[in-house]
Amino acid sequence: MSISHSDSVCPPMISSAPPRVPPTVAVIFGATGDLTHRKIIPAFYHLAKNNLLPEDFAIIGFARRPKSDDEFRQDLGEALQKFSHTQPVDDAVWKKLAAHIYYFQGELDDPEAYKSLAEKLKKLPESPKIGENYLFYLATSPNFFGTCAQNLAAAGLASKPGTRHRLIVEKPFGEDLKSAEELNRTLQSAFAEKDIFRIDHYLGKETVQNLIYFRFANAIYEPLWNRRYIDHVQITVAEQVGVEGRGGYYDHAGAARDMLQNHLFQLFTLTAMEPPASLDAESIRDEKVKVLRSIPTPSSDFLQKNVVRAQYGGGYIGGKGIPAYRQEEKVAHDSLTETFIAAQLEIDNWRWSGVPFYLRTGKALAAQFTEINIVFKRPPSVLFAASGDDRLRRNSLRIRIQPNEGISINFNAKVPSKAEAELVEMDFLYKSGFAHYLPEAYERLLVDALIGESTLFTRSDEVEQAWRLVDSIRDMWTKQSVRDLPLYACGSMGPVESDMLLERGGRHWIRPKEICK
Ligand code: BG6
Which residues are annotated as catalytic? Predict the structure, then answer.
């Protein structure tokens, strides 16, 4: 009997045909801002380069400053040269795309401007073929999110039957539970929930999406993925950079709001969730929300013991000087904003009861990396105790989200010529495993919003549950009313209290290879 190729190879879980993006006009609010330059336009350019945009496509940039279409295109072209993650920029692709980019001058809080925008949308040369298919991208300061949505609705541009009017909302989505609920209500009064796409760019990262494949497309890990075999889980998003000119925003936000509420919780819920009923958006998002719901609102006592915050002092990282956080531009000289947070969370459900999840993130740290470490229980040492090896190391799975995207498994192996075991590593590296182009997060997210696929966007209840937890931490801090925060040295891995958080359970943070050397 001969075995055909299709007998021996599993078919992909999801069709690998490129998505068909419908004809659309994308309107970017905040079109002269940093995000448009750094991320949104480079992402559209790469979609065009990879033939993922339809022939009938146009972009309108909405902003306050007076500017002609040509000046706007020129600015975007220069930004693209600087920020494109592939170089050199393909001039022919950019020129073709730029010919369909227009500028619209308007004030975000002026309802009349949106009415004129509605007129302009009808009169674009591309409009007859595109029809009323619009993607509105709110890349503005967050205090305009609600206003923009309401003004779009008043100008007849919100969701309506027979049209595709979609809304992308950038982060931060609110600054606490109350403001997020309010923003949800405002947006939902103008757009249907299925048309609202709340960005968390971590979900656009290939390696984050791979968490679902890794867990549910393999038979060997899932049976171990629970309290019987897993000792604890570590999730780290470490950044070497300081706040780099974003002091005004950051001093109000801090690490809990800037990173924990969104990016870390996304990694956390994808790691801990139950298998979804299917791969559709609602099934996956239902499971993620259930994880957050399974964390009872922690008491102040619990949080005091299990959450560590700190702020960076100045110093050098890789030869580059970084001022102390309080000396950063637009940061209060007596700021109590945390630039580092580590927290131990516990999920009160059948699978995870008693398994600590340690989450940490910080700026100005020793290395730039994001990874998830699944640390298994120690194997019984009875057999090896006689030879003195009575503390066999724990197996662990290291899921590297970035950089060196990949996954490694650590296991005990015999040291040649010795009666000893040592931890060795079996490694998968994305770069060598796949020759494919690795898209930037924003490319994937834009395509998904254009085709109306919500899986990689945060649902309203998910955002609210995440804020519930972050609020409880911040409330505890307010009650503490401290005069100062612990400082950590720039270029370290955070304050000693973060190490102590694990040490009291006989554990330690796993150091990535980059800083083991
Ligand atoms: C952003 C935060 O959402 O994510 C930044 O506001 C942070 O403070 C950034 O630097 C990290 O994203 P990435 O993709 O570089 O890990």
Answer: 263
